Automatic annotation (TrEMBL):
InterPro entries noted in UniProt: MoaB/Mog-like_dom_sf, MoaB/Mog_dom, MoeA-like, MoeA_linker/N, MoeA_linker/N_sf
Documented EC number(s): 2.10.1.1
Residues annotated as transmembrane: 285-304
UniProt protein name: Molybdopterin molybdenumtransferase
Pathway: Cofactor biosynthesis; molybdopterin biosynthesis
Chemical reaction(s) catalysed: adenylyl-molybdopterin + molybdate = Mo-molybdopterin + AMP + H(+)
Length: 380
């Protein structure tokens, strides 16, 4: 545990210290049909050629011997491949049909290049030489399809099913409990409650980033309620309290944690949030962020998002190389931006207020990061 210091801490110091208290990275095998939104824990390598057979480009007839040819079978996509063609016979192949091998004595005639009389096929033009999509012409066995760290989209899922990849290995999600605190959030009078916007915004972003989000609360500023909610969420890997980080008489959570948990950072001040904290209770990481919406969302990006990406040894998204700025954030600060326009393939970012933001800019290890916020599309 680190001794308490009142001075501001840099984000990399906080993240590196908190990494020590996370569980080891886990992975699990899931069906490709259920993997949308999951993050790959290993590369996906193709185990066989794609396609693995000859695929017909056109509707037509595969013939052996001399005309006329007796039609003996019709083959359509996904039909069984086991068939043989005798001398003087042919099979109909629909576009997309598969054939295991093409022998030299076999000829293919497109459907418009034959006459059909009863059950006999009579070619009226030369055979087609370029009918076949050959095995491995799209992808070779041993090629990397997707890289470790890729988030699987619906498009990726369809590709996996097309390639007959039924199972993939993905990272196990860390359970993240998000708890808004404050009696104003659970007002029992006739006056409307204050909306817990911080958790509404952070939760879908965290779920997208690979956490399994557990909503708990909001909870009133009562010591016994805070103790109960803490106990209820100790099955999570990380518990995030939002709000009540100050020193007012209703800011009780720190007193509860001092009785039941050990401080990692009893207080850490950062440029975007004062009096944040990190504790350890029964080997579970407990964090506290400011209840100010802008600060809690920024701290999520700066600390929690970096934490899970660093734990998995994955690069964090950074759009800085694709953006031009009308005003960059200062070292140690974070700014909210919106897109003005695009020139020469670069996004022009203009500083804006939180409610209009499309992007968040901040420094981490003195390197500028630009990330999409996306939260309004997911929440409202």
């Amino acid at each position: 545990m680190q001794e308490h210091k009142r001075n501001k801490r840099n984000y990399s110091e906080i993240v590196e210290e908190l990494l020590k208290y996370l569980p080891s990275v886990g992975s699990q095998e899931v069906l490709s049909s259920d993997c949308v939104g999951e993050i790959l824990s290993e590369d996906i390598i193709l185990k066989e050629n794609y396609p693995n057979c000859f695929i017909s480009k056109y509707d037509g007839y595969l013939c052996k011997g001399n005309s006329p040819f007796k039609l003996i079978k019709e083959i359509y996509p996904k039909d069984e491949l086991n068939f043989s063609i005798e001398e003087g016979c042919c099979v109909f192949l629909a576009t997309g049909s598969a054939v295991k091998e093409i022998k030299e004595e076999l000829k293919f005639f497109k459907i418009e290049d034959v006459d059909v009389k009863d059950s006999y096929i009579i070619p009226i033009a030369d055979d087609t030489k370029n009918n076949w999509i050959k095995p491995g012409s799209e992808l070779k066995s041993g090629e990397k399809i997707f890289s470790r760290g890729k988030k699987i989209s619906y498009k990726d899922k369809f590709a996996l099913e097309l390639l007959n990849i039924r199972f993939v290995k993905v990272f196990k999600r860390l359970n993240l409990s998000i708890i808004n605190t404050g009696s104003e959030l659970v007002n029992e009078s006739d006056e409307p409650n204050v909306t817990p916007l911080s958790s509404w915004i952070i939760a879908p972003i965290a779920q997208f980033d690979g956490f399994n989000v557990i909503h708990s609360g909001p909870i009133a500023d009562e010591e016994y309620l805070l103790e109960e909610i803490l106990e209820e969420n100790l099955n999570s890997d990380i518990i995030l309290f939002i709000g009540s980080t100050g020193k007012g008489k209703r800011d009780l959570i720190r007193g509860v944690l001092n009785k039941k948990a050990n401080p990692i950072f009893e207080i850490f001040n950062t440029p975007v949030g004062k009096n944040s904290y990190a504790y350890l209770c029964e080997n579970k990481l407990i964090l506290g962020f400011s209840g100010i919406i802008q600060a809690s969302v920024a701290l999520y990006y700066l600390i929690l998002r970096n934490l899970i990406f660093k734990q998995r040894k994955l690069p964090v998204e950074n759009l800085a190389d694709f953006c031009d700025f009308l005003e960059k954030p200062e070292i140690g600060r974070s700014n909210w931006y919106k897109s003005e326009n695009i020139e020469s393939g670069r996004i022009i970012l203009k500083k804006c207020n939180f409610l209009n933001s499309e992007f968040l800019g901040f420094y981490f290890d003195e390197k500028l990061f630009i990330q999409r916020t996306n939260f309004f599309n997911q929440v409202f």
